[in-house]
Amino acid sequence: MHGYSRLGLPRGSPPSSPRCRHGRSKTSGRGAATKQQQSIVERAVFFIISVVFRRRGMLLFAPLLYISGMLLYMGSVSFDVVSLKNVVIIGKPSPPGSVYRSPQLFQKLWPFMQGESNHTPNLLSTVWNSKVRKVWKPCIPKDTLKAELPKSNGLFIIEANGGLNQQRLSICDAVAVAGLLNATLLIPIFHLNSVWRDSSHFGNIFDEDFFIHALRNHVNVVRELPEDILQRFDNNISNIVNLRVKGWSSSTHYLRKVLPKLQEMGAVRIAPFSNRLAHAVSSDVQSLPCLANFEALRFSNSIRLLAEKMVDRMVKSSADSGGKYVSVHLRFEEDMVAFSCCEYDGGEEEKHEMDIARERSWRGKFRRRGRVIRPGANRVDGKCPLTPSEVGMMLRGMGFDNTTSVYIAAGKIYKAEKYMAPLKQMFPRLQMKDTLATSEELAPYKGHLSRLAALDYTVCLHSEVFVTTQGGNFPHFLMGHRRYLYGGHSKTIKPDKRKLALLFDNPSIRWEDFKRQMQDMLRHSDQKGVEVRKSSASLYTFPMPDCMCREGEAIDENSNTTTLT
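and the corresponding structure tokens:
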């Protein structure tokens, strides 16, 4: 609808298209009706003003009403009611990268992938091409000789929450704090998480005896509350004061605020203890988180035995590539898709399922006042979980052919039958927990997501290539652990998801152009494989130089061998 000038005439504008003129011809009486509505409004405004001027007490409102009347008269404010019937509304085009078009892209590129199958050399033998560089080796003081540990200042109790690697973070930070405070550490208590819903205790996942023994010369660790502490607090751990510590607190904060309470009361709790220690800790305890994470924490015997079998099976199925395989941390479970607030190709059914999933796991969080969900913006910003087909296209573009053995570390994939099918087409030698291990072997782990994640962690740790797709504690710990094992190189593909969003939203892209972009991404991951920790980063992801030392010139990376931990 055209705006009106001060004279009430339509402003000049370019002639409309025949289609639009045809649409207006059906409502030719609209102009007269509009003028009649405006006349009625004007009369009403002048009537109100005349009434106001008769009431001296309301003269203060006269200027405001006069201005409102003038705006109405000039057409700056309009009360016209526009019927959208028979009007064609042309929306703005979606920004590049904001729409999920990967299925269309796969359909176009699949014939080219098929044409290259079995005609390319296996990339696994040459995937990491970093030239001469300094090699790093672990240098954690494991067996510092001490006559005995100094007298303890008290018992330090923490509650580890979240999934497997969130718990791992809490445990390692707790070891550092216990060493800093010269406290005795109680084996960490695991909190039952509303998302993970795993009732496992420390000993179900980690080797308690080994943990205590590995730390014996650095921190005293006990399995149970000492008798004197139990008596002091009426045999109830809840009576022990629970200190509120802010996230990322410094060593100084613990020494000034927590230590006096520990010495005064003999025991303190911090629950929850997630992300409660800053990345930079005092130099005298700098080695403790390294020792805890890379040496003292190993999985329980039952987990290690099954994990070793699974790794061995992956190696045997990868005979064509010298026993080397690719592992992928695929975050396309229902809860991850729901949390991301991204949209795929499931339409209204998908939206309904995601609303239910969000409400089930994060009650009300996504319905708070002022919360705006922008799926397109999330995708452009690289925040959407990659689908299985997107991971497959990326790997095939990088040069991994259909003879490559691929292990998928994941929970229950959202609509697995639909979304996993293209990935299985691209990589027939695809394995997951339930295909690599028998149902009898996995039976003791049913309902225990943290124990299942420990199996995934081990298989990924020993792969030649690890692919991270969504971030989080699992890939961050794995990248650091792999650097610790492989001379400082993480051997990890960390894709640029903003760039991927643009490429996957371009079904017209040529296969050669797509491959070039993917190979550039692989080279970048290779270059970033060896990184020294910055002050704001975690040593669990970047163990150099805190946990590792320079050894010398490069060695042949392809000859690296490791033992299972």
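(Above: one complete record from the training split.) Residues 192 and 199 are 6 Å apart (CA to CA).
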